[in-house]
Write a structure and sequence with these properties.
- By secondary structure, the protein is α/β, with parallel strands linked by helices.
- It has 13 helices and ten strands.
- The protein has one domain.
- The protein has a ten-stranded mixed sheet, sandwiched between helices.
- Helix 3 packs parallel to helix 5.
Length: 398
């Protein structure tokens, strides 16, 4: 009996030890840097401004940012959130995937305010949040002005423009992270943690340590890696190669320290088939989430094209509920996969597109054959006549 008990204990110890050895390392947490950026650059909260920065400059910047936030909420976010509150079903999964989404956490939280995990994927890298610990007063002042301009452009357009995202991501202050922190201000949230991560070959998350990030940054600097665009660019823009690529932001409602931490992850990746066939860890990572809520808007109509079949196939296999403009999934793919599509607003054609297969005709027909449902705000792109439009893609009722 004693031998059997010892055998069971040994087995349990071995199991626990093995599980501990296989558990992902926590990595370094830059929550303190995120909170400083949140205060002095995104202008969230009213904590004291660190003495190393110019209080008059930060106060002036924050006065401007508060105006931007107020205007955006009045012109779009509040109206859209109220409207979509009656459209998005309560049963929609709280895990959200937003391909081609840039750092547009703001729109994601308008559509899915109760989401517990949101993932955006785009061509823009995160940037180095640690710079806030060493940046000079003068550089901070110039960078926050630049970031403020790009956030204004983002909110004015009510969608992520690739040009704005790429401009912001090249500043010293990490632009992609700044878009996310601005979203927290708009939605009365606050940052808790900030980590960088890689995706393993099986799609799992591996958090990075400060030592790993330092080593990568040194390598990029020494080899000038990431400074030269690739020789072949299919869709004009290309993914950024950076030592600070993917990041995870933990956040919760402002002032509620006991609230569960929600997770926002941004992954830098080119989602075309050439890149996904070469390295499919992004698709594997997304597939591990199971059925998800999805949104896509202002996505350059990439889901129409035959060189984005991998991400389109992933979506068709995992959508529980999806909202998009006409840059979403074409009806010729959605219907055979068991989905129905519900339209709002008007659509007479895309206002820009390379459309050799005349996919636009599918969308024009879709809107024409459905009852006219009003849409009082723009969601993503306007149509060719600058009319608002929106589309729901959901599994057909059984």
């Amino acid at each position: 009996m004693r031998t059997a008990v010892l055998s069971v204990i040994s087995s349990l110890v071995l199991t626990v030890a093995t599980a501990h050895a296989d558990a992902p390392k926590p990595g370094s947490d830059y929550g303190a840097a995120a909170k400083t950026l949140f205060r002095v650059a995104a202008c969230g909260g009213d904590d004291a401004i660190p003495e190393r920065f110019s209080k008059p400059a930060i106060d002036a910047h924050c006065k401007e940012m508060k105006g931007i936030y107020s205007s955006y909420k009045k012109a779009w976010a509040d109206q859209a959130k109220k409207f979509l509150g009656d459209v998005v079903p309560a049963t929609a999964p709280k895990t959200v995937v937003y391909p081609f989404g840039g750092g547009d956490l703001t729109s994601a939280l308008v559509v899915y305010p109760d989401a517990t995990e949101i993932t955006t994927i785009s061509l823009e890298a995160a940037g180095d949040a640690r710079v806030i610990d060493t940046i000079s007063k003068a550089k901070l002042s110039s960078d926050v002005s630049e970031i403020g301009l790009e956030i204004r452009r983002l909110y004015y357009a009510a969608h992520s423009t690739t040009k704005s995202l790429q401009n912001a991501s090249h500043s010293t202050i990490p632009g992609t992270i700044m878009f996310a922190l601005a979203a927290l201000v708009v939605h009365d949230m606050e940052p808790v943690s900030l980590k960088y991560f890689d995706l393993e070959p099986d799609g799992s998350v591996r958090y990075l340590s400060n030592e790993e990030l330092d080593a990568r940054a040194a390598e990029y600097l020494a080899t000038k890696r990431g400074k030269t665009p690739p020789s072949k660019i299919t869709h004009y823009w290309y993914e950024q190669d950076s030592a600070f690529g993917n990041f995870e932001l933990g956040y919760h409602p402002k002032g509620d320290a006991k609230a569960p931490t929600r997770i926002y992850r941004h992954i830098v990746a080119n989602l075309d088939d050439t890149h996904m066939n070469k390295d499919d860890r992004v698709i594997k990572h997304l597939a591990q989430k199971g059925k998800v809520s999805v949104m896509t808007k202002a996505a350059s109509f990439l889901l129409w094209y035959d060189d984005f079949t991998k991400i389109r196939g992933y979506l068709l296999a995992n959508i529980a509920w999806m909202i998009s403009d006409a840059s979403g999934i074409p009806p010729s793919y959605a219907e055979p996969a068991g989905f129905e599509q519900i339209t709002y607003g008007e659509f007479t054609g895309p206002y820009f597109i390379i459309d050799e297969k005349n996919t636009r005709a599918e969308f024009v027909k879709l809107w024409k054959n459905q009852p006219k449902r009003p849409l009082p705000f723009r969601f993503g792109y306007p149509d060719a006549t600058k009319k608002n439009h929106l589309m729901i893609t959901r599994p057909k009722a059984k």
